[in-house]
Amino acid sequence: MTSEPTTDVGSGSSVERALATALTPRRERTRERLLDAAFTVFANHGIRGASIEAVCEAAGFTRGAFYSNFSSKEELFLALAERAMRQQLASLESIGKELEPDIVRGGCVDQDAIRTILSVVVTDPGDARQWSLMRAELELLAMRDPAVGRPFLAQEEMLRTEVGAAIERILADLGLRFTVDQRTAVDLLLSIYESSARAAVVARPTAEDGDAAPDTAVLSELVNLLVTTAD
């Protein structure tokens, strides 16, 4: 077991607490391991069923290490959402650079390419089932706890705004455009994909049933309506 000194997260000003928890390389590694462990523990047991001790045990740390980085499970949850958002945006920018200009053939949009663009911002390609479960837990917690709901909604707003801008840049580079305003298109596309992802988890409730990759048939039809060539 690895431990770090405990920080009194309840004392001092917000500035003092921020300085006390500044991310040294060692602390950053600890924080990332706790986030990795929490992702799995929360997805498997839910935030109500998971304890701080379980997260610490999965990460190989003591409670002292946990409280040196997070004041509560709820704060940890929001940090997970923030990290996921940044990872998704980075993946989106990366995949945009890899797409070939022949994504448009004979005036038709390559549906597989568009699905690839969307998939990186709504799921973890390594484990679609686990990410869908984690996403559901985040939403439930946000609905139940206003203190979590407000910052969660702010994160969601930021994500959708940045995702929309990134997708629009990619489409413009490929000679494509949305047929409706950017925010409406992004809301529709992400909502349909997330709904399909949840349905896939229900259909395959355990890992033994195979990865819960969402059905993208409806998404393909929606892409046909929302994406067209730029004239």
Task: Outline the structure in words.
This protein is mainly alpha-helical and about 230 residues long. The protein has two domains: about 1-70, Orthogonal Bundle (Arc Repressor Mutant, subunit A), CATH 1.10.10; about 75-230, Tetracycline Repressor, domain 2, CATH 1.10.357. About 70% of the residues lie in helices and about 5% in strands. It has helices at about 15-20, 25-50, 50-60, 65, 75-100, 110-120, 130-145, 145-175, 180-205, 215-225; strands at about 105, 110, 175-180, 225-230. The strands form two sheets. A two-stranded antiparallel sheet has the order 1-2. Strands 3-4 form a two-stranded antiparallel ribbon. Helix 6 (about 110-120) packs across helix 10 and helix 8 packs across helix 9. The protein is elongated, with a radius of gyration of 20 Å. Mean pLDDT is about 75; it is low at about 1-15. InterPro entries: Homeodomain-like_sf, HTH-type_TetR-like_transc_reg, HTH_TetR. Keywords: DNA-binding. This is TetR/AcrR family transcriptional regulator. It comes from Promicromonospora umidemergens. It holds the Pfam family TetR_N.
Mind sketching the topology for me?
Layout: H1 14-20, H2 25-49, H3 52-59, H4 63-67, H5 73-98, E1 104-105, E2 108-109, H6 111-119, H7 128-144, H8 146-173, E3 176-178, H9 182-203, H10 217-226, E4 227-229
Antiparallel strand pairs: 1-2, 3-4
Keywords: DNA-binding
Organism: Promicromonospora umidemergens
InterPro entries: Homeodomain-like_sf (IPR009057), HTH-type_TetR-like_transc_reg (IPR050109), HTH_TetR (IPR001647)
